[in-house]
């Protein structure tokens, strides 16, 4: 797997907000549609990956996604 983390040290997201972030049409922006993170998660999961959000212990938020490498996909296909 390949893992990518995007970390910020802003004001963070409440626990309640994190629970809803991937819900379609949930937004905190006046002009937002609330589909961006839901679409991102769908694309990543379609490719057998995972997208998660956590609080940053130093303040802010950590978004992490993982995707399988090509060799992992090939091994999985051979064993199926």
UniProtKB/TrEMBL annotation:
Domain annotation Histidine kinase: ranges: 1-71
Reactions catalysed: ATP + protein L-histidine = ADP + protein N-phospho-L-histidine
Key words, A-Z: ATP-binding, Kinase, Nucleotide-binding, Phosphoprotein, Transferase, Two-component regulatory system
Biological-process GO terms, alphabetical: phosphorelay signal transduction system
GO molecular function: ATP binding; protein histidine kinase activity
Name under which the protein is recorded: histidine kinase
InterPro entries assigned: HATPase_C_sf, HATPase_dom, His_kinase_dom, Sig_transdc_His_kin-like_C
Superkingdom classification of source: Bacteria
Entry's EC annotation: 2.7.13.3
Presence of the UniProt keyword Transmembrane in the record: no
Name of a matching Pfam family: HATPase_c
């Amino acid at each position: 797997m390949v893992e990518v983390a995007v970390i910020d040290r802003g004001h963070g997201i409440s626990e309640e907000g994190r629970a809803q972030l991937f819900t379609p049409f949930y937004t905190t922006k006046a002009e937002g549609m609330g589909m961006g993170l839901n679409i991102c998660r769908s694309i990543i999961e379609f490719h057998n990956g995972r997208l998660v959000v956590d609080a940053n212990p130093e303040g802010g938020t950590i978004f992490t996604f993982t995707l399988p490498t090509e060799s992992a996909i090939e091994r999985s296909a051979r064993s199926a």
